Amino acid sequence: MKRSAAILIPLFSTRTLDDLGRGEIAGLYPAAELALALGHRMIQLLPVDETAPGETSPYSAMSVLAIDPLYISSSSLPGVGPAAIARARTAAGPGDPPDSARLSAAKLELMRRSFAHFQKRAAAHDRSEFDAYVIAERDWLQDYALFRALKERYRWSAWESWPRELAAREPRALQAAARELEREISFYSYVQFIAYRQWREMRKALAEKGVALGGDLAFSPCRESAEVWANQAMFDLARTVGAPPDAFSATGQRWGLPMPAWSAMRAGGFALIRIRTRRARQLFDLLRIDHVVGLYRTYGFGADPEALGAFDPADPADQLAQGEEIIRVIREEAGAMELIAEDLGVIPPFVRRSLAALGMSGYKVMRWEREWDEAGQPFIPPARYPEISVATTGTHDTETLIEWWRAAPAEERDAFVAMLGAEAGVDPKAANLDDRATLAIIEALYGARSQLAIAPAADLFGWDARINVPGTVGDSNWKWRFPYPLADAAKNPALAARVAAIRAIAERTKRF
After folding, report:
1. Of 342, 257, 362, whose CA–CA distance to 299 is shortest?
2. 207, 239, 258, 501: which is deepest, by most CB within 10 A?
């Protein structure tokens, strides 16, 4: 990996004048132009997997293989004109962003209009391309499209409540459903075809500009997903995934995701992980492996809400062997795609040693990198981070840089400023970080030896816009959007000055 910098901005956070109130694939182009203006060669995204209507977390997906139709750019849909888009914008309702369930219904109505146009008027080469796509992606698309159609048929009830033969995936029942729902299956296949075609064209355009795309391999699909329904033996549905007690939760976090049945996955050659990685390779230049420690040891909970969880595997030797085996599988399928590992939270030392031995870049969150065993627990200067690492101010789950500063105790601020050095000019007694201070922190971070530096958009611009608060379900989570249309950022004098200052930092630190 070349020395570079990336801006972390979820796709749902992008803003254009043409979108329906939530980021779309077309927003990646002005995001790339902004990234270049900042001296950044990569856009780091969160998962773009499809979620159920009303679900906002990209880490609780209805399919970890399908692109969320919400991201399809309406203005580029064949057979859909401005009047239909205007009606869809009204149907999506007010809000910034609008209610996700209403927006999903409005977007799918546009897709049905486009599909009807395709069936009646598509050119021969478009039909041929669609047919080729369906054949090429049949390993996952067939199950996904049938699952989507059945979800609609049974009014979004849990798949375990469907007729027994369908819930159990008896072959004759699946064949009968596929015949009955042939048109709907074709429609949902078309939706994914359009999403992939838009993504492929956008990725090509970004490559021509010299901007790479970073993706995020979420740890697991949700229970109500096409992949769990289609691969029931690969999951222990009596248990759910979470995280052990840590700074975010004294009793651990219950994510509600189904527990992988690791022995069954191994017996099947980790087929689901392989196809997920191959799918990511079609979309991204770099892949962040979320919750990488869970590949080594997965913390799972049973049905008792009061009981603590347990690790699977339980033995450290087995944990090490499993994690390295799975990472090698991901590497085999990744091809030229770069890999980085999200190794935050409660991480046993052997996992980080293993990742280092495998040449996997782990995370160095500036505010957490301290000599914890030394007197005063001094912060570690970024210049001492290992080259094979990712330096960052924070993630989608942390408070922003300026929020952290406001809440940090005096001794923590003093130690942090001591690490920065007097030349940074940061006042530890200041109640808030001003522009000069935040730029000094960004410069220290970008001066790290780390190959890759990633900064959330809010930290680059000195905003307090948080993306998610772990362990909570609230109206503010997963909804932040860039406050201006991305294409207009350069027209804002204050924003333009900030962009120029960040670019100068990227150039001085040889990341651009």
Report:
1. 257
2. 258
- In the DSSP assignment, the letter for residue 406 is H
The amino acid occupying position 148 is R
C-alpha span between 136 and 141 (Å, rounded): 9
CB 109 within 8 A of CB 88: yes
Any long-range contacts for 29-33 (C-beta under 8 Å, 24+ apart)? 29/202, 29/205, 29/206, 30/485, 30/486, 30/487, 30/489, 31/7, 31/486, 32/206, 32/209, 32/211, 33/209, 33/486, 33/487
Q: What would you measure as the largest C-alpha separation in the chain, in angstroms? A: 74
Q: How far apart are CA 218 and CA 97, in angstroms?
A: 23
For residue 230, what are its two tokens?
């289609």
pLDDT tens string 184-211: 999 999 999 999 999 999 999 999 999 9
C-alpha 26 chain-centroid distance: 17
Residues contacting residue 498 through CB under 8 Å, at least 6 positions apart: 435, 460, 461, 462
SS3 288: strand
Residue 248 scores a pLDDT above 70: no
Q: Please tell me whether residue 387 adopts helix, strand or coil conformation.
A: coil
pLDDT of residue 472: 80
The alpha-carbon radius of gyration of the chain (Å, integer) is 23
The answer, yes or no, to whether the previous bond of 221 is cis (omega within 30 of 0) is: no
* 127, amino acid identity: R
Q: What percent of the chain has pLDDT over 70?
A: 100
In which element (H, E) is residue 133 found?
Answer: helix 124-136
What pairing do the DSSP bridges indicate for beta strands 452-456 and 4-8? Answer: parallel
HSE-CB at 40 with a 13 A cutoff on CA atoms is 29
Phi, psi angles (nearest 5°) of residue 428:
-65, -15
Give the pLDDT confidence score for residue 494 in this predicted structure.
86
**DSSP calls for 368-380:** G-B-TTSTT-PBP
With 0-12 / 13-18 / 19 or more C-beta atoms within 10 angstroms meaning exposed / middle / buried, residue 171 is exposed
User: Are 265 and 273 a contacting pair, CB within 8 Å?
Assistant: yes
Using DSSP bridges, classify how beta strands 310-312 and 298-301 pair: parallel, antiparallel or unpaired. antiparallel
Structure tokens at 303: 């049905």
Q: Which of 340, 339, 343 is nearest to 368 (CA)?
A: 343
**What digits encode the pLDDT tens for the residues 468-493?**
998 787 778 999 999 999 998 878 88
Tell me the C-alpha distance between 351 and 235, whole Å: 23
Beta bridge pairs of residue 241: 257, 300
d(CA 507, CA 24): 30
Instruction: Using alpha carbons, select from 502, 505, 509 the residue that is nearest to residue 38.
Output: 502
Q: Tell how strand 338-341 and strand 286-289 pair up.
A: parallel
Tokens of 170: 């008896």
